[in-house]
Write a structure and sequence with these properties.
With 212 residues, the protein is an alpha/beta fold. It has helices at residues 2-10, 35-51, 64-75, 95-99, 103-110, 128-135, 139-144, 165-174, 194-210, and strands at residues 58-62, 81-85, 112-116, 122-127, 151-157, 178-183. α1 (2-10) packs across α9 and α2 crosses α3 (64-75).
Length: 212
């Protein structure tokens, strides 16, 4: 995100980065799932700039943020373009790999689990309610609600070790007005492919700015 924002600044395009509530430098407690609350966070940012006579051309998110920007576009139809970097299409996937095959039984029994650091400190809590919210968040249905005039770009690394490339291809099948760009060899964080990521996203954003 930092490198993309720097690249935009060099092109004279303003970019605003923020952490969702409970993440990074933002206040609040981290919540597992919490997709629609984060859509609300994004809405607050868009509204803030609208109130300052600044129009938002594009919303861009990585990983879970990719899902959040798509969910935003499915609910609000005031953004001309969306960039989804390595978002997950099937939110039912990845749960057992992350928490164990018996996660749903443990949540049903105890109501929550605590995810701990290597030092044994509680990093965050997963509740049965928050897990249900994730499992009931249907990205397929959300994509069907995105306005056909909204331009969409999905970028995914071919070597993504967290979210499989197949998820990006599923987005490409259903989203209207959509481009899919695959960065060969890139992992989930584009660790060794930052320049390639900028080279894919920057022309799309420059074109959007030029047409506004």
């Amino acid at each position: 995100m930092v490198n993309l924002a720097d690249a935009l600044e060099k092109e004279g395009i303003s970019a605003f980065r923020f952490d969702f509530c409970g993440n990074g430098e933002s206040e609040g407690s981290f919540q597992f799932g919490n997709y629609f609350d984060e859509v609300g966070d994004l809405r607050s940012v868009v509204d803030y700039f609208a109130g300052s006579n600044r129009s938002t051309i594009t919303v861009l998110g990585h990983s879970k943020g990719g899902d959040v920007v798509l969910l935003y576009a499915s609910k609000y139809h005031d953004i001309p373009a969306v960039v989804n970097l390595s978002g997950r299409y099937d939110l039912k996937r990845g749960i057992e790999e992350r928490f164990g095959k018996d996660i749903l039984e443990r949540l049903k029994k105890d109501g929550y689990i605590d995810v701990k650091t290597k030092n044994g400190e509680v990093e965050y809590r997963v509740t049965e309610e928050s897990m249900k919210e994730r499992l009931n968040t249907d990205m397929h249905e959300a994509c069907l609600l995105v306005d056909a005039s909204c331009r969409l770009l999905t970028v995914h690394g071919s070597a993504d070790e967290v979210i499989p490339l197949e998820d990006a291809k599923e987005f490409a099948k259903i989203l209207p007005n959509h481009q899919l760009k695959i960065i060969e060899g890139a992992n989930h964080g584009y660790s060794s492919h930052q320049d390639e990521l900028v080279s894919v996203v920057l022309p799309f954003l420059k074109e959007m700015c030029a047409t506004r």
